[in-house]
Amino acid sequence: xxxxxxxxxxxxxxxxxxxxxxxxxxxxxxxxxxxxxxxxxxxxxxxxxxxxxxxxxxxxxxxxxxxxxxxxxxxxxxxxxxxxxxxxxxxxxxxxxxxxxxxxxxxxxxxxxxxxxxxxxxxxxxxxxxxxxxxxxxxxxxxxxxxxxxxxxxxxxxxxxxxxxxxxxxxxxxxxxxxxxxxxxxxxxxxxxxxxxxxxxxxxxxxxxxxxxxxxxxxxxxxxxxxxxxxxxxxxxxxxxxxxxxxxxxxxxxxxxxxxxxxxxxxxxxxxxxxxxxxxxxxxxxxxxxxxxxxxxxxxxxxxxxxxxxxxxxxxxxxxxxxxxxxxxxxxxxxxxxxxxxxxxxxxxxxxxxxxxxxxxxxxxxxxxxxxxxxxxxxxxxxxxxxxxxxxx
Length: 393
What we know:
single chain, 393 residues, Jelly Rolls, eight-stranded antiparallel β-sheet, 4 helices, 20 strands
């Protein structure tokens, strides 16, 4: 028809190009104006200033009055600043992989490791600590046992209902401590138990730990405990029931003749190598005989199927954390009272009323380091991990 106008729209390609351009523009604007990223970056800037101020103040004290004795001299130990308040947190981002080995012992539910006849190291009145890394999934799983010739002794095991259990048993009685924790999930967990040598069902006689944290424990004493024999056997992967064997993985098994503190247990759970009072230590790392004790050369004898495998506790527990003492360190008098620091800093993201610091300090010889534990991601929308914010002097 004469005078009729032909209508023309956008082609599909043109629409795609326009949409792509708009998407790029939106992304650029979002990144430029991202409030989460900007807020995190701003708080991290203050954290950097805080850690610098802390080590500068400590350095001034070092020059004027010498070392601050409250700061632990162990280079592997960190302490959280407290100024009389509660500690903020007991873990902190780091790059320490600890001493955990790359090898482990794998049990298939049909075998175990055992030392033959040895002098029995404990009695029901002895103090001890037993610890191990375990990776199991389901069922009852005996981890470590010490039995005399009458099959009385000590057992550390994981129960089918996700409980950790330590048992001291003689022919006349048994002392059982049990605590609930998620341990049978196919990942490594650090399991530890301490006993103070007091035969009682009091809740503080036996302490159980999972991944460095003490768990609520119920203790039961049935009868009157007698004594253990003078000789016996030490075994991994088997316990009081000769028909049940470990189906899982063990690593870094340790036996001590003392009660390790809660700080020391947390240290083991992040790979800290503690040797005081240690009787035996198996990390299954030896290329010639993986079952040899790395301290005294005592060898475990395999029975059934037990293999050395490439595995290590690395996903959940400890790698990337610091060993931080559980009690805060109060440096108010040394740093603030002497005018070297205006105040003990608290983290900008923390509750101001609680004044939790979230800053930790470390001494390695003459060098002091301060680190911010709550460094936040400066990525888009706060995604990713936070930067390492620390200062040393």
